[in-house]
Each structure stands twice: as C-alpha cells, then as structure tokens.
C-alpha cells in the first residue's frame, strides 16, 4: 500500500465506538506518530468542541493537536457566516455547534422568527425542540444539518445520529435539508488548503461508505474502508464507486 503525507481519520466507528477505542486504529495512529506523521481527524460529530474531541482521544492514548481536528460544527459555522450573515438562528445541538456559532458571532435564539434552523446531534432533544424547529421552518427558515448520518456505532450497538432527527423535521415541514458535513469534501479541502497538501498526498479512512468514503471520492483522494463500524465490507462491494482499499481493520495495513 502507498504511503501518504496526510492520513485523515473518521472517528465514530473508525477510531472508537462510544467511549471504547478500536485497538487496531489506535495502534495504527500511534505508529504513524512515532514515524513523524501527525494524522488529521475529520468528524461529522458536531456535538463536541475540538477541545472535547482532543480530550476524548487523549483518554485512548492519542495526543492530537487541535489544528488537526476538523468537525462538521466548525464547517457549518463558517457556512452560516458566509451565506447567512447577520441573521438569527435557532439551534438544536450540543456544545460543539453552539460554541462554533458563538465564536463566529452568530445570534442564537429559541424564537420561531429566525432565518435558519441548524441541527446537530443533541442528546437532550425533546418533542418541544423538534416541534419549534418544524414551526420555524414552516414560517420560512432554512433547515441546515451539520451532517446527515442516520446512525452511529456504540459499544452496545447502533443508535440514532443527527440525520435521523433532521429527516424527521424535514418530513414534517416538507422541505429538503441542506447538509454540510461528509460526504461533502469541504473538510478535506480545508486540510489541503491550510496545510498545503496535494490530493495525491492524502487518504481518507473511515467505516461509513455513504459519508467517509464518498467524501474522499468526491474530493479526489485515495480512500480506505475499514469494517469496524456502520458499513460492512460486503455492502461496500455492492457500490458502483469503490474505495481504493478495503480492509477488515487497520491492523491489515501493510
């Protein structure tokens, strides 16, 4: 297999499941670091801030610099700043998206009179939050999801991810949501631009074909699918566009 300058790792289902690290991935990342290669972390999870992601990786034995952590929350905040300047937004989400928006100076309110409804994973989501979002969108607000993931793996099994809640609201309000995270190549484009890599220097590694692998394919870099999370190798083999490599786990990398 080729050697790369920029190894871009998905997190949920690739590096860890819930709070449990995937041993083969942690060992592979540590091996890269011993060789002087600092990986990047490209996650659709908008619930955590980069600092919280950094802390979680540290508990698994991975020391990750903040400027190598790219989340859909950061990309979404930049998108709102560029496309909806000076507007009020309603947010369903956790620390990651709320902090990212506040750092851009974006006005967050619980009112239904807003221009945009932004949805990221919210572990405290309830009927009232979802109903308020539906009403705001029916009043003309745009619906933007930090990502469209339907499920993600935990130690016990699969649980609902942000996309499942976005689709619920979209169905009620009868709109098509805008999704910002993977498979959009925006985060990989940011890594290439900010760290001066060519596409041939980069590889996207992930477990979810519909997000991670398609992100890499759309960006134009090599991709590695690992059979440790959402999409099985058997399911990947049925897809028209194939990843560059498929492996059971990162311990198979040679």
Give a written overview of the molecule.
- The structure is a single chain.
- By secondary structure, the protein is of the alpha/beta class.
- It folds into two domains: 110 residues, Rossmann fold; 98 residues, HAD superfamily/HAD-like (Rossmann fold).
- 36% of the residues lie in helices and 20% in strands.
- It is built from nine helices and 15 strands.
- The strands form four sheets. Strands 5-4-1-13-14-15 form a six-stranded parallel β-sheet, with helices on both faces. Strands 7-6-8-9-12 form a five-stranded parallel β-sheet, with helices on both faces. It has a two-stranded antiparallel sheet with strand order 2-3.
- β6, α4 and β7 form a beta-alpha-beta unit.
- α3 packs parallel to α4 and α5 crosses α6.
- The radius of gyration is 18 Å and the shape is globular.
- The mean pLDDT is 96.
**Strand order in space, largest sheet:** 5-4-1-13-14-15
Which range does the strand content fall in?
Answer: 15-25%
Overall helicity:
25-40%
CATH superfamily of the largest domain: HAD superfamily/HAD-like
CATH-defined fold name of the largest domain: Rossmann fold
Average pLDDT reading: 96
Total strands: 15
Q: How many DSSP helices?
A: 9
Largest sheet: 6 strands, parallel
User: What is the CATH C-level name of the largest domain?
Assistant: Alpha Beta
Gyration radius over CA: 18 Å
How many angstroms does the end-to-end distance come to?
6 Å
The helix-strand sequence is: EEEHEHEHEHEEHEEEHEHEHEHE
Topology:
Blueprint (H helix, E strand, L loop, with lengths): L5 E4 L6 E2 L2 E2 L1 H12 L5 E4 L6 H10 L9 E3 H12 L4 E5 L2 H9 L3 E2 L7 E4 L7 H12 L3 E4 L5 E3 L4 E3 L1 H12 L4 E2 L6 H10 L6 E5 L2 H11 L2 E5 L6 H4 L8 E3 L7
Parallel strand pairs: 1-4, 1-13, 4-5, 6-7, 6-8, 8-9, 9-12, 13-14, 14-15
Antiparallel strand pairs: 2-3, 10-11
Helix pairs in contact: 3-4, 5-6
């Amino acid at each position: 297999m080729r050697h790369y300058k920029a190894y871009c790792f998905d997190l949920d289902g690739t590096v860890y499941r819930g709070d449990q690290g995937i041993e083969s991935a942690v060992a592979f990342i540590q091996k890269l670091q011993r060789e002087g290669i600092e990986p990047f972390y490209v996650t659709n999870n908008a619930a955590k801030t980069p600092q919280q992601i950094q802390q979680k990786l540290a508990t698994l034995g991975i020391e990750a610099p903040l400027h190598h952590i790219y989340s859909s929350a950061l990309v979404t905040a930049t998108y709102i700043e560029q496309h909806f300047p000076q507007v009020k937004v309603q947010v369903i989400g956790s620390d990651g998206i709320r902090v990212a928006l506040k750092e851009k100076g974006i006005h967050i309110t619980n009112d239904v009179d807003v221009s945009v409804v932004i949805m990221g994973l919210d572990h405290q989501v309830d009927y009232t939050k979802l109903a308020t979002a539906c009403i705001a969108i029916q009043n003309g607000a745009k619906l933007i999801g930090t990502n469209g993931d339907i499920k993600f793996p935990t130690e016990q099994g699969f649980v609902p991810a942000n996309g499942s809640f976005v689709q619920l609201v979209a169905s009620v309000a009868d709109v098509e949501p805008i999704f910002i995270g993977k498979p959009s190549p925006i985060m990989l484009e940011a890594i290439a631009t900010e760290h001066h890599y060519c596409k041939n220097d980069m590889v996207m590694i992930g477990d979810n074909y519909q997000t991670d692998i398609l992100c890499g394919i759309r960006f134009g870099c090599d991709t590695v699918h690992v059979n440790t999370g959402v999409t099985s190798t058997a399911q990947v083999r049925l897809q028209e566009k194939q990843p560059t490599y498929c492996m059971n786990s990162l311990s198979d990398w040679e």
